[in-house]
């Protein structure tokens, strides 16, 4: 008798262990990637360090967009507004009010999150294209507001963060410092996405994405959940914007509210796989790497080729690389043409 | 007072042009639920075709715009038939990204072919103007306005009264039912997109005569089309006309009375207020605003 009861118990504990191991595996892989990125720093020279730091920046931005656009399914086409608000808050706080960078950085994130809450409450009632356009309108409008608040922001002529001399509140971080800062932000954003993906909040967002009315009927406070996701995504984007402003030293409204930054975030998420943690990370690394490669080798044609790649990627891999691999492994259907068949007329 | 009158006249004239820029955008959005981010690229492409016609054949831009329309119609038809139709049933990100990719290629292509210099299609009469008391009306702009409004009205008539137009409307309302009635949805979609591109091209040729243009102006025309289409509302062919005139007036008055470049923020303020309080637009039908991706 005892042997008969022991055998299944052994089986149960081993599946539990295997289950735990499987759940811990992504975290372990993340840690390995983080250590690898730290180790990589010593191998790069200064210019490369800056390029890789930009890749980390886009990882953080793509993960942030994924929270609202991927998990909740709300295509925010004005996400860059939080980038701009964060960047300008830091620049103004450091040059006018002599805040240290670290204080400004944190406050920038908080201000961007508050701003997201403020605009999210009315705008998240809109759906589909209308939400996309309303957020785009907010971003374009904010750019004009910042351009016109010349006393505070310097207007179109830009604002310069003091980095040298007595006015400098925080010493310039240099390429080494910014590499670590953007790596930290990328790690933070992946961590947040990983936590969201596994807890109740993340499931609520996915439910909203699939059917908002059904989600509400299940007792999810949809408004609060969406606004919270928007604020969280704004928080990360604000942090990144603040760091970018400090890195660039002089910032202009045209760049900090550039709609192309939003579009890049979206493309990275869609190509990698929206609604996943790994997708935006892979998408950001791949696209930024490719873009940099094209810029160096085909300077004139760079944007043209990028456009063509986006078109091909969207037609062949509309669900993103990560989702494609997952589905293909489950259904044993590896043909990309199946994707085309799904969405064509 | 004369400043106000002058701004009003200018705003109306500009509004008519904006209506022509946006009417195709609004049509495509209403019928296919596609927000075409390459629309501004079509406008500028039309301006370049008009410019080339004027440069090489001495064709008056108001005739050259029909060449622009023909070129852009073919371009739009082919794009929709062989590219956009491939993803038409996908989620909104997909069509948005596809048309954004197109926009990148069109704008960068124009940059390579025509350079980023500002150009303008000069005519002998474009600097003439009529004077009514203290209000001056530039002749070129008046002509552009009249043509823009006429074309918009003509489009409405064609869509509402001809067999082809009704098949476009029917496909927009219910594609499945339309196909059961023997309508070829692929062809109708391509036709709709071609018409939209042709109208954008015409508007572009007119813009080339009353002002300057270069490839990077494309994005601002796409944005303006957004604002006008949303303000006017979808599902009513006169929506773009109403939206265009209102935005033209608001911008002209804003330019007259607001300091700095605050006027640029005004259009977006209007957009957001309309979206929050009246998402169907001024004259749009609720069905189109409530509709999500099919």
Protein model, in words:
- The complex is a heterodimer of chains A (345) and B (294).
- With 345 residues, chain A is mostly helical.
- Chain A has a single domain, classed as ABC transporter involved in vitamin B12 uptake, BtuC, CATH 1.10.3470.
- Chain A has a two-stranded antiparallel ribbon.
- In chain A, helix 2 packs across helix 12 and helix 3 packs antiparallel against helix 4.
- Chain A is globular, with a radius of gyration of 22 Å.
- By secondary structure, chain B is an all-alpha fold.
- Chain B has one domain.
- Chain B contains 12 helices and 2 strands.
- Chain B has a two-stranded antiparallel ribbon with strand order 1-2.
- Chain B is globular.
- At the A-B interface, helix 5, helix 12, helix 14 and helix 16 of A face helix 4, helix 8, helix 9 and helix 11 of B.
**Helix percentage of chain B:** over 70%
Order of helices and strands of chain B: HHHHEEHHHHHHHH
Radius of gyration of chain B: 19 Å
Number of strands of chain B: 2
Mean pLDDT of chain B: 88
Report the principal-axis shape of chain B: globular
- Strand % of chain A is under 5%
- CATH architecture annotation of chain A: Orthogonal Bundle
Main sheet characteristics of chain A:
2 strands, antiparallel
CATH class of chain A: Mainly Alpha
Helix content of chain A: over 70%
The CATH topology name of chain A reads ABC transporter involved in vitamin B12 uptake, BtuC
Q: Give Rg of chain A in angstroms.
A: 22 Å
Quick one: how many beta strands of chain A? 2
């Amino acid at each position: 008798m005892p042997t008969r009861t022991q055998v299944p118990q052994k089986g149960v504990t081993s599946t539990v262990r295997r289950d735990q191991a499987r759940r811990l595996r992504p975290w372990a892989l993340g840690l390995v990637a983080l250590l690898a990125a730290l180790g990589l720093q010593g191998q790069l020279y200064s210019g490369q360090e800056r390029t890789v730091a930009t890749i980390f920046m886009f990882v953080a931005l793509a993960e942030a967009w994924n929270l609202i656009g991927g998990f909740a399914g709300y295509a925010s086409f004005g996400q860059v507004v939080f980038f701009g608000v964060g960047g300008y808050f830091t620049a103004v706080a450091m040059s006018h009010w002599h805040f240290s960078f670290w204080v400004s950085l944190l406050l920038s994130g908080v201000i961007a999150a508050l701003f997201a809450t403020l605009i999210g409450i009315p705008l998240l009632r809109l759906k589909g294209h209308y939400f996309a356009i309303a957020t785009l309108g907010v971003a374009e409008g904010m750019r004009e507001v910042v351009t016109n608040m010349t006393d505070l922001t310097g207007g179109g002529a830009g604002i310069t963060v003091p980095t040298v001399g007595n006015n400098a509140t925080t010493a310039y971080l240099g390429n080494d410092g910014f590499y670590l800062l953007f790596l930290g932000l990328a790690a933070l954003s992946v961590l947040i996405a990983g936590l969201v993906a596994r807890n109740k909040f993340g499931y609520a967002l996915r439910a909203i994405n699939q059917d908002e009315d059904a989600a509400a009927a299940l007792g999810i406070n949809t408004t609060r959940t969406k606004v919270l996701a928007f604020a969280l995504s704004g928080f990360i984007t604000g942090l990144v914007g603040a760091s970018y402003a400090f890195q660039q030293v002089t910032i202009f409204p045209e760049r900090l509210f550039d709609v192309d930054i939003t579009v890049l975030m979206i493309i990275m998420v869609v190509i990698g796989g929206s609604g996943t943690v790994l997708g935006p990370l892979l998408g950001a690394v791949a696209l930024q790497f490719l873009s940099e490669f094209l810029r160096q080798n085909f300077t004139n044609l760079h944007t043209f080729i990028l456009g063509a790649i986006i078109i091909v990627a969207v037609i062949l891999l509309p669900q993103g690389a990560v989702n494609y691999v997952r589905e293909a492994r489950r259904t044993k259907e590896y043909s990309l043409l199946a994707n085309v068949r799904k969405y064509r007329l | 007072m004369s400043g106000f009158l002058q701004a009003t006249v200018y705003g109306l004239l500009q509004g008519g042009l904006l209506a022509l820029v946006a009417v195709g955008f609004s049509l495509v959005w209403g019928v296919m639920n596609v927000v075409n981010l390459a629309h501004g690229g079509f406008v500028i492409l039309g301006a370049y075709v008009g410019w080339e016609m004027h440069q090489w054949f001495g064709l008056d831009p108001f005739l050259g715009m029909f060449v622009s329309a023909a070129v852009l119609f073919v371009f739009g038809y082919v794009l929709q038939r062989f590219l956009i139709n491939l993803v038409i049933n996908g989620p909104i990100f997909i069509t948005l990204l596809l048309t954004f990719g197109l926009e990148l290629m069109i704008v960068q292509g124009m940059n390579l072919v025509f350079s980023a210099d500002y150009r303008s299609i000069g005519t002998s009469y474009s600097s003439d103007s009529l004077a009514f008391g203290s209000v001056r009306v530039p002749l070129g702009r008046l002509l552009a306005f009249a043509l823009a409004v006429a074309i918009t009205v003509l489009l409405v008539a064609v869509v509402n009264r001809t067999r082809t137009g009704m098949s476009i409307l029917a496909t927009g309302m219910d594609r499945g039912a339309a196909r059961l009635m023997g309508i070829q949805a692929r062809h109708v979609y391509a036709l709709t997109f071609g018409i939209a591109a042709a109208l954008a091209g015409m508007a572009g040729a007119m813009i080339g005569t009353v002002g300057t243009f270069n490839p990077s102006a494309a994005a601002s025309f796409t944005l303006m089309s957004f604002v006008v289409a949303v303000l006017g509302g979808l599902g009513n062919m006169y929506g773009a006309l109403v939206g265009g005139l209102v935005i033209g007036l608001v911008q002209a008055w804003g330019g007259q009375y607001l300091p700095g470049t605050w006027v640029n923020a005004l259009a977006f303020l209007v957009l957001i207020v309309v979206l929050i309080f009246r998402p169907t637009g001024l004259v749009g039908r609720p069905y189109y605003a409530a509709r999500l991706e099919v």
